[in-house]
Design brief:
Keywords: Signal. InterPro entries: Lipid/polyisoprenoid-bd_YceI (IPR007372), TTHA0802/YceI-like_sf (IPR036761). It is built from 2 helices and 9 strands. It has 204 residues and is of the alpha+beta class. The chain has a single domain, classed as Lipid/polyisoprenoid-binding, YceI-like (Lipocalin, Beta Barrel). A hairpin with a 2-residue loop joins strand 2 and strand 3.
């Protein structure tokens, strides 16, 4: 009787392990393609807006089946450009201002990072992404809707991410901290338009 009970327990355990081996997909890693990926920034002010680019230098995404489980990304703030100002001198002046202590202080904080903490399916290819964004050494939680497609060999993601710059000690031109700015006021929030491309990482 005792031996039969032990045998039944062993068979149940074996069945559970076998079932899990079929139902739980093995983790798969994708490597971000910096050349194919783009990150466009949009900053708004009372009198208009400016746009530009920054480079995603590296990133790795871990999936189980079609679902993203983890992700880490590094952004090179020294690559920051302005695309809407055509005059060369004015363009260089604005880029320099954005890189100095009034804004991103790139000399001290040349990199920004984003870590995915959760991805929740919504409908079809639509997901809610939550994560931790670090700028100027300050980390805050952010969340945003994203469209993610994964065919097993290539993963793409598009999203519009709204960032409150004042949470990262970027207060220049903010009417939340300075009075009488008039038409020189700059929005606290800026937008990041993400177009991410990643390929299956082989040999790992």
């Amino acid at each position: 009787m005792r031996n039969a009970q032990i045998l039944r327990t062993a068979l149940v355990a074996l069945a559970v392990v076998t079932l899990l081996s079929f139902t739980t997909p093995a983790p798969v890693k994708f490597k971000v393609d910096p050349k194919a990926s783009t990150l466009v920034w949009i900053g708004k002010k009372v009198t208009g807006q400016h746009t530009g680019n920054v480079t995603i230098t590296s990133g790795e995404i871990t999936t189980e089946g079609k679902l993203v489980k983890q992700g880490t990304f590094e952004i090179d703030l020294t690559s920051l450009t302005v695309t809407d100002v055509k005059d060369e001198g004015s363009n260089a002046k604005l880029v320099g201002h954005l890189k100095n202590e009034d804004f991103f202080n790139v000399a001290k904080f040349p990199k920004s990072t984003f870590e995915v903490t959760s991805v929740t399916p919504k409908a079809g290819d639509e997901y809610l992404v939550k994560g931790k964004l670090t700028i100027k050494g300050i980390t805050n939680d952010v969340e945003f809707p994203a469209t993610i497609k994964n065919d097993g060999k290539k993963l793409t993601a598009t999203a519009k991410i709204i960032v409150d710059r004042t949470k990262y000690d970027i207060r220049y031109g903010s009417s939340s901290f300075f009075d009488n700015l008039g038409n020189k006021a700059i929005s606290n929030e800026f937008e990041l338009d993400l177009n991410l491309v990643a390929s299956l990482q082989t040999g790992v």
